[in-house]
Design goal:
The chain has about 220 residues and is mainly beta. It is built from one helix and eight strands.
Length: about 220
């Protein structure tokens, strides 16, 4: 816990230093829009659970609203309100003692990221998004066949509140007449566990993670 607080402190300090160091724009820029895309999700269990892999996860969807405010030339703040289909997939072949397993858990989240947005260029711009996120799991759905020999990770979600970090790389085209078109690859990692992780519990951690590709459209609101 102390190390996590230290990392978050350094992150906030880096944001403050970046904002102070950047030259201010003559006229601040405000963008609003929406984004949507596909994502692969998984979860890191400790102790590990066999058969769970981010690369074999079926694609799910995510999307939401975006507000970006820029008062400096390079650095901006971006707030999002997102819907995400997270979860994991477990695939195991049949053995002499158990049937084949193909199990999927879908966790539907409402998520609120607050991101530092660093962009470079003019009309075609590359950018980096980085910042904390919080969320809440409002629906938990199961599909497929379970492993009868191992049941700890089939319990209902015990910690619906989520918090973690998000980082993304991408590029966009900014037009004065038709808005901004953006493409981003983003990685989300939860620092919170979906199952209880007290000393008496089986799991010491169960952290969701996901990789997504998103397309966004933003429109600039003129600020005088």
């Amino acid at each position: 816990m102390k190390s996590t607080r230290y990392i978050l402190f350094l992150f906030l300090l880096a944001i403050s230093s970046t904002l102070v160091a950047q030259p201010r724009l003559r006229h601040p820029e405000l963008y609003i829009g929406a984004h949507a895309g596909v994502m692969a999700s998984s979860i890191t269990f400790k102790p590990t659970v066999k058969g769970i892999d981010l690369l074999q996860s079926p694609l799910s969807i995510n999307g939401g609203l975006v507000v970006r405010y820029a008062a400096h030339k390079v650095c901006a703040l971006q707030l999002e309100l997102n819907y995400m289909q997270r979860g994991w997939r477990e695939v195991l072949p049949a053995t002499a003692t158990s049937p084949a397993v193909d199990y999927r858990r879908q966790l539907d989240y409402i998520q609120l990221p607050l991101l530092m947005h660093l962009a470079f260029g003019n009309k075609f711009r590359g950018f980096l998004n980085l910042g904390p996120q919080i969320g809440y799991c409002f629906r938990d759905t199961e599909y497929g066949t379970k492993n009868p020999l191992y049941t700890h990770h089939y319990l209902p979600i015990q910690q619906p509140f989520d918090w973690g970090l998000a980082g993304g790389l991408g590029m966009y085209y900014r037009s004065n007449n038709i808005g901004t078109f953006q493409l981003e690859a983003r990685f989300n990692y939860s620092l919170g566990s979906v199952f209880n992780n007290r000393i008496t519990d089986y799991f010491t951690s169960a952290n969701p993670m996901n990789l997504s590709i998103n397309f966004a459209y933003l429109w600039e609101i003129r600020i005088k």
